[in-house]
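Allow me, if you will, to draw on your knowledge of protein folds for a short while. I have a record of one protein: its chain in single-letter code and its fold written as discrete structure tokens. Kindly check, if you would, that the fold set down in the tokens agrees with what the sequence suggests. Thank you for your consideration; the sequence and its tokens are set out here:
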Amino acid sequence: MPSDRRRFLCRSMLLAAGLASPVATLAALPSPAPLRRALPGGRETLPVIGMGTADTFNVGTEPGERAPLAEVMALLLQTPGPVIDTAPSYGSAEAVTGDLLLDASARARVFLATKISASAANAPAQWAQSLRDLRSENVDLLQVHNLIDWRDNLRFIRQLKEHGKTRYTGITHYREDAHEALAQIVRSERVDFVQLNYSVAERNAERTLLPLCQERGVAVLVNRPFQDGRLFRAVKDRPLPPWAGEIDCDSWGQLFLKFIVSHPAVTAAIPATSKPRNMRDNLGAGLGRMPDARQRERIAALLA
């Protein structure tokens, strides 16, 4: 599709979602303000609920595909500076993200994270394409995806950081069997972020990796907070426990997310969704009271 037509369609959908209109009256998030966590060095903070784009933003250019994502983006942007995490290996997700941010004039309003998911030899070409797709001259965080050629790719990312193309460096994985490798890198290298899988039913990160990141001042992004929907299937047809109201949870999703972001080492969780209803629910997990240690174990016991 020609770029001008693609931009026209995106802008039309954003206007419909209220994201690109200067006079739009978006529904305000409830008070108090969402919880935020400080980044290494304390120079800035991030909301504890951000957004991933794996699978959900891998869509085409048709209005019916883009319109729900424009609304999801509009909801996310009600909170200043949220994380949007994407990757070149997520199909069209980078390009969709770039289109929506451009037409909303919202690039400066998000903490944009992407990844190098190619071999070291192909990393420069992949990075150049990511910038074109994201319609940006830089990103806030550039990560080595799933530890692919991590030594060389981390070196490349550091060079980009020196040239102002990224502000932070990171490494990622989505499986528990990679946690020891992530921990070894945190011990031996200086990285700003680690992205890892962690949930109420996958708690391996609590043993070593999360305390290590906290000790060394490394920010943590959490992927797969719902284990790709497995947690919801595990509680299907079960009522939310009455005591969930003690920590201001209205849904199972909020209960699962609050378990994650209440860990002091976690900077932000990045659940992916293409549904505005789910985005609203996810954002609610950053509000209100958070579980203490006893309440966290009470949540975990529900999935035992």
The chain has one domain: 3-19+45-301.
